[in-house]
Design a protein that fits this description.
The protein is α+β, with helices and mostly antiparallel strands. The chain has two domains: 58 residues, 2,3-Dihydroxybiphenyl 1,2-Dioxygenase, domain 1; 75 residues, 2,3-Dihydroxybiphenyl 1,2-Dioxygenase, domain 1, CATH 3.10.180. Helix content is 28%, strand content 30%. It is globular, with a radius of gyration of 16 Å. It starts with a strand and ends with a helix. InterPro entries: Glyas_Bleomycin-R_OHBP_Dase, Glyoxy/Ble-like_N, VOC_core. It comes from Mameliella alba. It holds the Pfam family Ble-like_N.
């Protein structure tokens, strides 16, 4: 089995959050979803587990932060091109999220935006040119 990542996010309203993530392209995996959690699949290697606050509390004794007020992580996901970065951000807004809680980044070889889900968790869709991926952004930037 390939190595995977499961991002666990506490959510205030599981139904609302599930609908939001479906609207931006995730697929709900019913095998790992119930009234306490929803498994949302982004790719073969990336899943987001949406957990009700009460269920989240069974995993850790640490204080749950309010993602609308505090940032603990920025979740960056690659997109195939600039248009796809804009498309997922616009879909997030249409589904009840907030666009660009972080500054837009446009460096020519790399383009990134951000959106917050209804709970405030920040996602950063980004695109980087194939040349920058191959050579490294500093080399591409210095050559231009």
């Amino acid at each position: 089995m390939p190595q995977m990542i499961f991002v666990n996010l506490p959510v205030a309203d599981l139904e609302r959050s599930t609908a939001f993530y479906e609207a931006i392209g995730f697929t709900r995996d019913a095998r790992f979803s119930n009234n306490l959690a929803a498994s949302m699949v982004l790719s073969d290697a990336i899943c987001v587990m949406l957990l009700t606050h009460d269920f989240w509390a069974t995993f850790t004794d640490r204080r749950r932060v309010d993602p609308a007020q505090e940032a603990q992580v920025l979740l960056c996901i690659s997109r195939e091109d600039k248009a796809a970065v804009d498309a997922i951000t616009e879909a997030a807004v249409a589904a009840g999220g907030m666009a660009d809680p972080c500054p837009v980044q446009d460096h020519g070889f790399m383009y990134g935006r951000s959106f917050a889900d209804p709970d405030g968790h920040i996602w950063e869709p980004m695109w980087m040119s194939a040349e920058a991926v191959e050579k490294g952004p500093a080399e591409v930037s210095d050559a231009g």
